[in-house]
Design goal:
An eight-stranded mixed beta sheet has the order 7-6-5-4-3-2-1-8. The protein has ten helices and eight strands. The protein is globular and about 55 Å long. The protein has helices spanning about 20-30, 45-55, 90-115, 120-125, 135-145, 150-160, 175-185, 200-215, 230-240, 270-285, and strands at about 5-10, 35-40, 60-70, 75-80, 185-190, 220-225, 245-250, 270. About 40% of the residues lie in helices and about 15% in strands. Helix 1 (about 20-30) runs parallel beside helix 2 (about 45-55). By secondary structure, it is of the alpha/beta class. The mean pLDDT is about 95. It folds into two domains: about 5-85 and about 175-285, Metal-dependent hydrolases (TIM Barrel, Alpha-Beta Barrel); about 95-160, Orthogonal Bundle (DNA polymerase, domain 1).
Length: about 290
């Protein structure tokens, strides 16, 4: 029997993916995935829709979210897995994060306008689900207006770290972000650590040691951006800091070129055993799975 494959990091139209939550679940089913986690940026708006479709399709849906936190070198991302239904505290935190997104997006549009690339927020919203609007939606608008030939160039030249139109946003500290997610009963993982070009092995070692004190319990070892050496390094550091492993493609549909659901850049295969170990940990602590 072929091993069951999972994908615990995906995005839908509720944030910066191109697929609706229903379409995402249907694609996962068509690919034969046993389970997926929907981990949209700064929102849980698509989870109920995805859960309903997953129940009909017979595929496991893990409720998740992805949050950014500020770091001395910029920002790092956290995954909250096994999120409960939206609580009042989480609702307030999401509102704050989305307001920060709005002001940051408008600031970047203002910069781009001074560079001869005018766009309105309404035009950007046409490329989004109008929930958690972000840089990918600005990049799509830039491409549609002929300002750039590709999303990659939009990020490399303008919207990414060091880009000429990049504007940082106000973010919670790592301690605040981890404690917020853990307070909801989520299992908190550090997402794609080596996606950051500033990440080194020594820095990651220090980050994991610090974040574990706040409640970090896992690290995203398997990711579309990680090569085999980085995967091995993550596993070694996870063992050192007694952290669980997780992994996902970071699928965004058409909004992230070269990344496919379940397979990442083509060779990603995350076994179901990863999810089983996460659930085993949660059961041992009386947490719902």
């Amino acid at each position: 029997m072929a091993s069951r494959i999972i994908d615990l990091h995906t995005h839908s139209l509720a944030s910066d993916g191109s697929d609706s939550p229903v379409a995402l679940v249907r694609k996962a089913m068509a690919k034969g995935l046993a389970a997926i986690a929907l981990t949209d940026h700064d929102t849980m708006a698509g989870l109920e829709e995805a859960e309903d479709e997953a129940a009909r399709a017979g595929i496991e849906l893990i409720r998740g979210i992805e949050l950014a936190v500020r770091d001395e070198f910029g920002e790092l991302h956290l995954l909250g897995l096994f999120m409960p239904r939206l609580s009042e505290g989480m609702h307030a935190a999401i509102d704050t994060l989305q307001r920060s997104r709005f002001f940051r997006n408008q600031a970047m549009l203002d910069v781009l306008a001074t560079m001869g690339m005018p766009m309105t927020m309404d035009e950007v919203c046409e490329h989004s689900g109008k929930v958690a609007i972000g840089r990918p939606h600005i990049a799509l608008t830039m491409k549609s207006k002929g300002y750039v030939p590709s999303l990659r160039e939009a990020f490399e030249r303008y919207l990414g770290w060091g880009g000429s139109a990049f504007v940082p946003r106000t973010l919670p500290s790592p301690e605040e972000g981890i404690r917020l997610l853990r307070g909801q009963g989520a299992t908190v993982a550090l997402a794609h650590p080596f996606l950051s070009k500033r990440m080194t092995v020594g820095r990651l070692d220090a980050v994991l040691g610090e974040f574990r004190q706040y409640g970090l319990r896992a690290i995203e070892v398997y990711h579309s951006s990680h090569d085999m050496e980085q995967i091995r390094l993550c596993i070694r550091l996870a063992d050192k800091h007694e952290l669980l492993l997780t992994g996902g493609s970071d699928y965004h549909g058409a909004n992230k070129e070269g990344v496919t659901l379940g397979a990442g850049a083509g060779r990603l295969r995350i076994p179901y055993a990863v999810l089983e170990k996460l659930r085993e940990y949660r059961r041992s602590r009386g947490l719902p799975v």
